[in-house]
């Protein structure tokens, strides 16, 4: 423990920052200035805690605590001060996180992209998940996934059927499909939000602050917790509202017989009757073709694919010296997700889009889809003029059951193959997450050491010094000397 | 608690209609994510003839997160501790959503047949297993007799 600041100084921060992708060297210097006068143990905590104390207008930090923690701030700044790019990297990290409101708004933006909209459709599926799995793990990059679906590199999110029976008639299949909404029904009042006040206007972000400050008895920590719970509960409620609005638009669309963005009955049958299959992970029945694992050629629906991700940064399990590593940030690792079927590292899929139905975005209107067997009786006006149908060029003599899937891959492909979509591609932030975890750990151990040091120093010295800065500098020198003499 | 996903419903149906030999998993009526499990000790293991009770719980994130499984019957085994917690890779980091209740219970049964004292959870048991294996096996048999002979498979 005693040699942590030395370590942090020499290796920790430097290596950590060297790993920050695209470290923005031009990023601000204001942060460094503010932290040297601030009292938190890190940039992140500084900003958050000062925001909260400004809500309540009282700061209860004791002078002893302030000294202890500011020492850490100085440590970190001192360490990074040696190299300009290091400082920039740290600041980049903290600027990204600094404003809780900004962070919350980003979450809100993300959740908005998870709303299923019927007019955003591709080959009979959609750009956002139906919601078969727990929503906690929908933290993928929504823009990346939407683009992959539009580019036909990843199967769209389809509305799944809970069961499928080959004896069902066409009418039964259509009726079942028509009874489904765009998203699985939300639990209206989940238990976790039971006692969380929502306030009067869930759209008004600033109201959260007044809701939190109503209870003066709460500690700052509890206030922060409550604030985040209120935000979560409201966001959940708003997500339900957003989806219900889209469901209503979808429902109203169904009432208009000529709505071009709704699937024709032929398309519904093409999706579920002729191409459907059960996903081996969620056991739901989806239209094919499905995504195929790059390694062992097993099918997986997009709903399940987006759930598969790296574990949180952790320590390697094979390390022998398990006691030593617990506070060494660069022993934190993050490994690429493995294939759920064969455990091959760096999980990825390939997807071959259907050849007989290129509908929706970059395709023709879903309403105009006509199965090959039915085509002769239809007029050409039904197809979207701007996007000529793919099927119209095909042989008219084939029956609907001949809607064969495109020829599928027979061998495994490498994770680098341009056709492959890997789990890391849809969560490109894994590297910055790892770096954040390492920084957090580095700060935690530096904090612990600094508190320990300052306690020792405070015990030794009689403090009646009004020049706190001088004392601090002296303490840093002491601490560094201590850490160096600690057998390092 | 979220609605019961189709996967859990289908897995339960298949467990009932096509049970695993030597393993019984019955969902709780009030909570369909909670299963009472009975497992027969593998033949030619120190647990032979014993019937062990376990509990299995499927968290909200299942199948993206592994089920939580614990022995309720006391058992002398280097990878199972006093509280019945099990040290098994597929229950932790090597969990895959393609695994199922059925496969997990089979893995646990296999663990009974092949104790691994080099990756212990119960340190004292593992130590004994390495130092004096015949004695450890004898103790395991005694415990089986003492604690695992009171149950019957339905």
Describe the structure.
The complex is a heterodimer of chains A (488) and B (154). Chain A is mainly α and 488 residues long. Among the domains of chain A are: 100-315 and 328-371 and 413-427, no CATH class; 432-486. Chain A contains 16 helices and 10 strands. In chain A, the strands form 4 sheets. Chain A has a 4-stranded antiparallel β-sheet with strand order 6-5-9-10. Chain A has a two-stranded antiparallel ribbon with strand order 1-2. Chain A has a two-stranded antiparallel sheet with strand order 3-4. In chain A, a hairpin with a 6-residue loop joins strand 3 and strand 4 (285-287). In chain A, helix 1 crosses helix 5 and helix 1 (4-19) runs antiparallel to helix 15 (430-460). Chain B has 154 residues and is of the alpha+beta class. Chain B has one domain: Ubiquitin Conjugating Enzyme (Roll), CATH 3.10.110. Chain B is built from 4 helices and 4 strands, in the order αββββααα. A 4-stranded antiparallel β-sheet of chain B has the order 1-2-3-4. In chain B, strand 1 and strand 2 (34-40) form a beta hairpin. Chain B is globular. The A-B interface holds A 132-134, 136-137, 162, 184-185, 187, 190-191, 280-284, 298, 304, 307-308, 311, 317, 338, 340-341, 343 and B 1-3, 5-7, 10-11, 60-61, 63-64, 93-94, 96-98. Chain A: Residues 43-58, 80-93, 371-382, 409-422 have a biased composition (Polar residues). Chain A: This is Related to Protein SIP5.
Structural class of chain B: alpha+beta
What is the overall pLDDT average of chain A? Answer: 74
Oligomer, anyone? heterodimer
Helix content of chain B: 25-40%
Structural class of chain A: mainly alpha
Q: Can you give the mean pLDDT of chain B?
A: 92
Strand element count of chain B: 4
How many strands, what sense, and barrel or not for the largest sheet of chain B?
4 strands, antiparallel
Q: Per DSSP, what share of the residues of chain A sits in E-state strands of 2 or more residues? A: under 5%
Overall number of structural domains of chain B: 1
Spatial ordering of strands, largest sheet of chain B = 1-2-3-4
Record the strand order, biggest sheet of chain A: 6-5-9-10
Count of helix runs of chain B: 4
Family (chain B): Belongs to the ubiquitin-conjugating enzyme family.
Keywords (chain B): ATP-binding, Nucleotide-binding, Transferase, Ubl conjugation pathway
Organism (chain B): Saccharomycodes ludwigii
InterPro entries (chain B): UBC, UBQ-conjugating_AS, UBQ-conjugating_enzyme/RWD
